[in-house]
Design goal:
There is one protein chain. By secondary structure, the protein is α/β, with parallel strands linked by helices. It folds into 2 domains: 20-258, 3-Layer(aba) Sandwich (Aspartate Aminotransferase, domain 2), CATH 3.40.640.10; 260-348, Aspartate Aminotransferase, domain 1 (Alpha-Beta Complex), CATH 3.90.1150. 42% of the residues lie in helices and 15% in strands. It has helices at 20-29, 41-54, 66-77, 91-94, 99-103, 121-129, 157-170, 181-188, 192-195, 227-236, 244-255, 259-279, 301-310, 334-348, and strands spanning 59-63, 82-87, 108-112, 139-146, 173-178, 203-206, 217-221, 285-287, 294-298, 323-327. It is globular and about 60 Å long. The chain binds pyridoxal-5'-phosphate (PLP).
């Protein structure tokens, strides 16, 4: 009997491949002709599917990266003299090379605090009022919420509604970075509508590349008055693919038969398995809440070095010394987790 080699890369969920259903859909799409630039039938089907998922008519722009989705979505919501209030650990603040500032033509990102990379509502309330209407300052315009957060926590519905009402009272628009949106839905087991437009979200970056697609993420637009402008912005940003049908085919298969949720439930279950195993190892201290597919922990140096020498890959020097991050995906197998735990136990001894 042949066994698959153990996966040892836990640095990110984007190290995973592509779901077989999505590859099949690409192969089917590759025959025949279709209209370009999103005028094809498959793109129309994706819009209908996402309207069903969100229980209302939405507009959809398919893009090739999560950073493009974030930067374009924020640009449609924020004037150049505005500010985007976000968590200081957010991807838009730390990992997008200034794309939000560039695409908004100069809006300012204002970093806020809060545990587990969740925005603290009191900090949001204060920042939303800070120098509002003062022509000498940037105008608080948008709050950007990451769901799941960068540390693997998931905002509860109540937490989201609280942020939504603070934003509404202050007249802020709301953007959601959902690079791991499926993981949040799988974790909370709630309707996607509850987590988004019913909580005040105007534009969602609906990630899929970390959870099964090859090169396709989506901007889901709840405030459809923004769509004409977004369409021009996407073209100008080089994000209007001429063969959009291939991005659409990926999304179509991702949404069909609940593949997106199956994949996310699996990734979350693998992180839960890892978390349970690590809990039983006294030398390891878990950090924060692993509600979805990211586990943070504090590891003694000898364990980190031992794992690295075994060929494991994971972030161990990106935050504070001694803090490690393990990310699971839809391709992580239970035995991959069991091997990793065995190695941690060995190096702890
Ligand atoms: C929270 C979050 N948002 C957005 C992105 C953007 O992803 P991309 O690398 O596709 O631009 C990532 C990727 O790591 C992410 O973790």
């Amino acid at each position: 009997m042949s066994t698959a080699p153990t996966a040892r890369v836990f640095s990110s969920d984007n190290t995973a491949g592509t779901s077989a259903e999505i590859l099949d859909a690409l192969a089917r799409e590759a025959t025949g002709q279709a209209l370009p630039y999103g005028a094809d039938d498959t793109t129309a089907t994706v819009r209908r599917r996402l309207s069903d998922v969100f229980e209302r008519e939405v507009d959809v722009l398919l893009v090739s990266t999560g950073s493009a989705a974030n930067a374009l979505g924020l640009a449609a919501l924020t004037p150049p003299w505005g500010s985007v209030l976000c968590h200081r650990d957010s991807h838009i603040n730390n990992d997008e090379c200034g794309a939000p500032e560039f695409y908004t033509a100069g809006a300012k990102l204002v970093p806020l605090g809060g545990d587990d990379a969740k925005i603290d509502p009191d900090e949001l309330r204060a920042a939303a009022r800070h120098k509002a209407g003062d022509v000498h300052s940037v105008e608080p315009s948008v709050v950007s919420i990451t769901q799941c957060t960068e540390t693997g926590a998931v905002y509860t519905l109540d937490e989201l509604r609280t942020l939504g009402s603070v934003a509404e009272e202050a007249g802020l628009r709301t953007h959601m970075d959902g690079a791991r949106f499926a993981g949040a839905i799988a974790s909370l087991d709630c309707a996607p509508a509850e987590l988004t437009w019913r909580a005040g979200v105007d534009v969602l970056s609906f990630g899929a590349t970390k959870n099964g697609t090859m090169t396709a993420d989506a901007i889901v637009v709840f405030d459809r008055s923004l769509t004409p402008e977004l369409a021009f912005r996407a073209k100008r940003a080089g994000q209007l693919a001429s063969k959009m049908r291939f991005q659409a085919a990926q999304f179509d298969a991702y949404l069909a038969d609940g593949l997106w949720l199956r994949n996310a439930r699996h990734a979350n279950a693998m992180a839960a398995r890892l978390q349970e195993g690590l809990k039983a190892i006294p030398e390891v201290r878990l950090l924060g809440t692993a509600d979805a597919n990211i586990v943070f922990c504090r590891l003694p140096q000898q364990i980190t070095e031992g794992l690295l020498s075994d060929g494991y890959a994971f972030y161990h020097d990106r935050w504070e010394p001694g803090v490690a991050r393990f990310v699971t995906s839809f391709t992580t197998a239970p035995q991959d987790i069991d091997h990793l735990l065995r190695a941690v136990r060995q190096h702890a001894a």
